[in-house]
Automatic annotation (TrEMBL):
<dbReference type="InterPro" id="IPR029069">
    <property type="entry name" value="HotDog_dom_sf"/>
</dbReference>
<dbReference type="InterPro" id="IPR002539">
    <property type="entry name" value="MaoC-like_dom"/>
</dbReference>
<feature type="domain" description="MaoC-like">
    <location>
        <begin position="23"/>
        <end position="122"/>
    </location>
</feature>
<dbReference type="GO" id="GO:0006633">
    <property type="term" value="P:fatty acid biosynthetic process"/>
</dbReference>
<protein>
    <submittedName>
        <fullName>Dehydratase</fullName>
    </submittedName>
</protein>
<dbReference type="GO" id="GO:0005835">
    <property type="term" value="C:fatty acid synthase complex"/>
</dbReference>
<dbReference type="GO" id="GO:0004312">
    <property type="term" value="F:fatty acid synthase activity"/>
</dbReference>
<dbReference type="Pfam" id="PF01575">
    <property type="entry name" value="MaoC_dehydratas"/>
</dbReference>
<dbReference type="InterPro" id="IPR003965">
    <property type="entry name" value="Fatty_acid_synthase"/>
</dbReference>
Amino acid sequence: MQAPRFADVNVGDKLPALTLPAINRTTLALYAGASGDHNPIHIDIDFARKSRMPDVFAHGMLSAAYLARLLTGWVPQTALRGVAIRFTGITHLGNQPTCTGEIVEKLEADGEKRVKVAIRATNQYGEDKLLGEATVALS
């Protein structure tokens, strides 16, 4: 992977978007098995309905993992210095996640050249599901 260079990026530059397939029950079952998160709200429709939800919905950390994938598709994992996210909406079955990022600041810290990147995960309707910020070291 050829990471971008600090001198070659600017505030306002956008990361290549990551668009994923629509969330389905198989995705949720596979994520539950891989993560060990078997919360029934994500995999048991009867439990979800008893919890006043129309159906199961995606694990928040699945969407967080997609945001991490956006970042590591742009730079090596070793370049990440910090990631902070907050959950802003539920990702329902049939939602197609898209993860995006935009450079919002260039700085130097701890002897490194870094950028701050505003990151977000939305569905196909443009509704925010996660918002956050990542700090990335660039050469």
